[in-house]
Description:
two-stranded antiparallel sheet, 2 strands, binds copper (II) ion, 17 helices, single chain, 550 residues, Cytochrome C Oxidase, Chain A, mainly alpha
Amino acid sequence: xxxxxxxxxxxxxxxxxxxxxxxxxxxxxxxxxxxxxxxxxxxxxxxxxxxxxxxxxxxxxxxxxxxxxxxxxxxxxxxxxxxxxxxxxxxxxxxxxxxxxxxxxxxxxxxxxxxxxxxxxxxxxxxxxxxxxxxxxxxxxxxxxxxxxxxxxxxxxxxxxxxxxxxxxxxxxxxxxxxxxxxxxxxxxxxxxxxxxxxxxxxxxxxxxxxxxxxxxxxxxxxxxxxxxxxxxxxxxxxxxxxxxxxxxxxxxxxxxxxxxxxxxxxxxxxxxxxxxxxxxxxxxxxxxxxxxxxxxxxxxxxxxxxxxxxxxxxxxxxxxxxxxxxxxxxxxxxxxxxxxxxxxxxxxxxxxxxxxxxxxxxxxxxxxxxxxxxxxxxxxxxxxxxxxxxxxxxxxxxxxxxxxxxxxxxxxxxxxxxxxxxxxxxxxxxxxxxxxxxxxxxxxxxxxxxxxxxxxxxxxxxxxxxxxxxxxxxxxxxxxxxxxxxxxxxxxxxxxxxxxxxxxxxxxxxxxxxxxxxxxxxxxxxxxxxxxxxxxxxxxxxxxxxxxx
Length: 550
Ligand code: HAS
Ligand code: CU
């Protein structure tokens, strides 16, 4: 069986492979879609490459890094062993599932049939991919559920031995992440197993609105499945680096509770323009979306105060003197804080997205692309990159191969991301479409789009180069990094030996129950509305056109 350390190494190494391939896809589709830039891929290839970019990075890179990080945090803080058979089974299913799902995308490109896997990472039906795409995804979901069982098994054993103890903060973040995942994935599992696998194998005709609603039931909590581990790192690791305390651990747990409660009952904010859903349900989801944003606002306050305290302790005075006193040359610190600032940029854009009226302006434009590159591509990915500079020496007993590269890489990522996302946000306000290979519209496109999209491409190339620096550094570190003492996670994360007394925040079961009630309130009526009207199953469409199923 594989040990925790081996599991962490395999998950994180596999996540880097996915980031590298997904990042290359990102460059290919970015340059090809930019007016005036060389076409590196043709139109059918663009949609397959864009699918690969979204699946490999948004879904798989994040998931595998989070698996490794979760085992690192739980084993470090709780000091109890995992059931290795569960870890091994979870890893095997998730990796096999990823390879199977990747076949139609990468295989399709290699054998000249890019439309085998050109359904984008949201795989909305009636667009149709090769059955392997959906079967692979189902295996990844099942693997993730087994992983969650492995984590809760350790937690329950720990809790039995530490009755009345407060859940350590990092562990709380991991549990919140997995609870959100377990709340959200049933929607995806029903859509994929009940509809999309039979659609791709036997031509089952499916109801598009029902499947979009099931996807977004899963799709929005997915973003907090990504974000909460990043926030957990900000809460648990940043104070360690700064040799200070988190400003308010209670506010941190309150933020996690808000994410547990309100991450899932908000998915209709991705469907504001969908016909067939009452405006009152969309309004309810808007209100709940603004509620879940409170978790991020609490985080903003907590982290800024922690940084300000640390800066003041280092002699920073006045309103902003503390900023310069922070350790900006440390790539773990600079990566995380730049990521935190990117969440600010993307998050405020999210508040625009969540407005029922304003969403009509930005929906399906490059504004949304700017939003999620600052959030997933910035807050989450840059935090995981920064964490890697801490984890790799602990995992491999080697120092980072090039500290020089490590020092500049987060800044390059941040600058590139800001250029890309600001240009794409502005182009989106002018109506520039997302997910479109050729947006020249035969010369009728507004002239403002071209320069903005070109600036966006420059920004994208800058942070792609930053990604190359990162992937090179993490590849070389286990090979040529200087040997260093192999720390263990407990010394990094554990607060002394004892655990504090539990508070109301630690009553996790209550929060899960309330979350389920909120989900039932938010989704029973929209689903009743869709199902009571009678479904309208459609013929599935391959990119070449209607697939003549029986
Ligand atoms: Fe989003 C679309 C609404 C957060 C990811 N989002 C997406 C998509 C993705 C995504 C992938 O309501 C595209 C899906 C697709 O392909 O169609 N999003 C929100 C809202 C929030 C939000 C309200 N999104 C995220 C996060 C993501 C993410 C986090 C990934 C990790 N999003 C939407 C909506 C859509 C959408 C609609 C659909 C759009 C459409 O029409 O298709 C909120 O959670 C945001 C709350 C966060 C804040 C920021 C708080 C400030 C912080 C720090 C500030 C920094 C300071 C500087 C103060 C309000 C944390 C400090 C300075 C120092 C020196 C230290
Ligand atoms: Cu959302």
